[in-house]
Amino acid sequence: MAGARAAAATSAGSSTSSGNPPPQEPGLGELLEEFSRTQYRAKDCSGTGGSKVERIEKRCLELFGRDYCYSVIQNVNGDICGHYPQHIVFLEYESSEKEKDMFQSTVQVSKLQDLVNRSKTARCRGRFVCPVILFKGKHICRSATLAGWGELYGRTGYNYIFSGGADDAWADAEDITEEDCALRSSDTHLFDKVRGYDIKLLRYLSVKYICDLMVENKKVKFGMNVTSSEKVDKAQRYADFTLLSIPYPGCEFFKEYKDRDYMAEGLIFNWKQDYVDAPLSIPTFLTCSLNIDWSQYQSWDLVQQTQNYLKLLLSIINSDGWAHPRIPEAC
Questions:
Q1: What are the start and end residues of every segment in region (Disordered) (predicted)?
Q2: Is 276 left (phi over 0), alpha (psi -120 to 50) or beta?
């Protein structure tokens, strides 16, 4: 953020001459310390620990407000997702102080909140598609991968039981469209319903590219498919999006990185493991200008792989087309 960078630069200039380290922005150091030591749960934001989290969240909103006009998706007590902040920021556009007084929202927040509520069960642990970075009018979103049948049926059953018999994912809305009716009547399968709303959210956010970092097509735990990639959706529901399969080692592999004293040079992922079945697949029109031999991706060490993937993602973000990559997290 420009305001934060300017303040940091001024502080650094004055402290260098005195030999003291530059002071941190109030709240940011506390945020880094908090997330590195504790697991965040929105529903636990009460009591002493809760007041600390609320203070950090408020500070983050103040910092966002320096450079952007934004709307907020309410997630009080983790009602939408227990792993997301209580106030989820939707950055709308960069702005000056003068423009903030004339703020006009570019989205219908109530509609966005409704789409989020309806689509949240489609993805692992309810981690729905959420914009996190705004660059030149383009939103870079994050989310989890698609939930498998075990979690999907388990979560919807849990919601049904603990909501007194009312399925909150399919609560009646005042503005039921023809498309909504078609989703409910033409196919009663749960996958069609929840993934249909997931796709509606992606379209509402103008997502064009989906960048899939999974090294497997489906993640299996205890013999059950717990998550699935959009690229192997049997019904081809995500065919209208540009899907990129750019397999990148998951969090388990980074234990080796830590064991090597955080030396990534020469550290190569073992692509011959049984569960690794997602090949690299990128549309040619996205790679022709990068001068990278993608056929050699399995021989790259962690440094080269990260560099090449970042070159690809940055080229998409900088392209003239209306590109909104959705980069999923590892399960």
A1: 1-30
A2: beta
Environment class of 188 (CB within 10 Å of its CB; exposed 0-12, middle 13-18, buried 19+): exposed
CB 202 within 8 A of CB 230: no
pLDDT per position as a tens digit, 141-154: 988 888 876 666 55
| Domain count for the chain | 1
SS3 (DSSP) at 125 = helix
**Dihedral-angle region of residue 317 (phi above 0 means left; psi in -120 to 50 means alpha; beta otherwise):** alpha
In a domain, 310, yes or no: yes
Residue 152 forms part of a structural domain: no
Burial of 119 (0-12, 13-18, 19+ CB in 10 A): buried
Lowest mean pLDDT among 34-43, 122-131, 294-303: 34-43
Q: Residue 290 sits in which domain range?
A: 208-319
Tell me if 83 sits within 8 A of 40, measured CB to CB: yes
Residue 79 lies in a domain: no
Higher pLDDT, 304 or 127: 304
Work out the pLDDT band at 178, boundaries 50, 70, 90.
very low
Q: Is residue 101 part of a domain?
A: no
Percent of the chain topping pLDDT 70 = 70
Residues 93, 75, 331, 268, CA torsion sign = positive
What integer is the mean pLDDT of 234-252? 90
Rounded distance, CA 130 to CA 171, Å? 21
H or E element at residue 163: none
